[in-house]
């Protein structure tokens, strides 16, 4: 099954993924999006976020399309994962596109556009569970800053440096969870609660 871990920058998604892997009694695979190391679409989006693609980042729709095409490149792998016995953790998935796009445009209508683009037009599979790691924005921001300070390769990009965007994105994620957008959701900052919910789902 596919389980996506969602959250703003610095929310602690990588740490949570590691805890889930340790807690599970069966194989767990991890696919992290954007796939900067293997996808040209993700690489172009990354360049744009660091100001190397002109005014590309000015368009929320253009950026969302690049991130969607990155996921399209992993479609076969995702569909195979849905048919396999293993648990596959997605470090961000389609909901991230919906949340960040809605936050950038300050208009939730784009959530439906993302849904149509990724689930319907591109035919990407829905996750069996979407987890919103609801970390306080201030805490997440400090973590992102500390990470960038400790590792020069983790310099914060345009989205990460925009505190207002992070606030709006967090709020957008909560609205997605309330709507059960794209499937089943759980929203909490408590790792034990998340792990318990995942184990219950696997047990089902």
From TrEMBL:
Keywords: ATP-binding, Kinase, Nucleotide biosynthesis, Nucleotide-binding, Transferase. Residues 5-178 form the Thymidylate kinase-like domain. Its EC number is 2.7.4.9. InterPro entries: P-loop_NTPase (IPR027417), Thymidylate_kin-like_dom (IPR039430), Thymidylate_kin_CS (IPR018095), Thymidylate_kinase (IPR018094). The keyword Zinc does not apply. GO terms for molecular function: ATP binding; dTMP kinase activity. The keyword DNA repair does not apply. GO terms for biological process: dTDP biosynthetic process; dTTP biosynthetic process; dUDP biosynthetic process. CDD domains: TMPK. It catalyses: dTMP + ATP = dTDP + ADP. It comes from the Bacteria. One of its GO terms (cellular component) is cytosol. Phosphorylation of dTMP to form dTDP in both de novo and salvage pathways of dTTP synthesis. Belongs to the thymidylate kinase family. This is Thymidylate kinase. It comes from Corynebacterium curieae.
């Amino acid at each position: 099954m596919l389980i996506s871990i969602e959250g703003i920058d610095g929310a602690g998604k990588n740490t949570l993924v590691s805890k889930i892997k340790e807690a599970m009694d069966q194989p767990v695979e991890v696919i992290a999006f954007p796939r900067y190391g293997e996808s040209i679409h993700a690489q172009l989006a990354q360049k744009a976020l660091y100001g190397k693609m002109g005014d590309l980042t000015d368009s929320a729709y253009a950026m969302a399309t690049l991130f969607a095409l990155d996921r399209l490149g992993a479609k076969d792998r995702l569909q195979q994962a849905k048919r396999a016995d293993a648990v596959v953790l997605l470090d961000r998935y389609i909901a991230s596109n919906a949340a960040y796009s809605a936050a950038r445009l300050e208009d939730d209508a784009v959530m439906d556009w993302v849904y149509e683009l990724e689930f319907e037009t591109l035919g990407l599979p829905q996750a069996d569970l979407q987890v919103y790691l609801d970390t306080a924005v201030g805490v997440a921001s400090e973590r992102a800053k500390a990470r960038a300070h400790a590792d020069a390769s983790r310099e914060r990009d345009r989205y990460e440096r925009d505190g207002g965007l992070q606030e709006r994105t967090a709020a957008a994620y909560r609205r997605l969870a309330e709507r059960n957008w794209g499937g089943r959701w759980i929203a909490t900052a408590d790792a034990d609660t998340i792990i318990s919910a995942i184990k219950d789902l696997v047990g089902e």
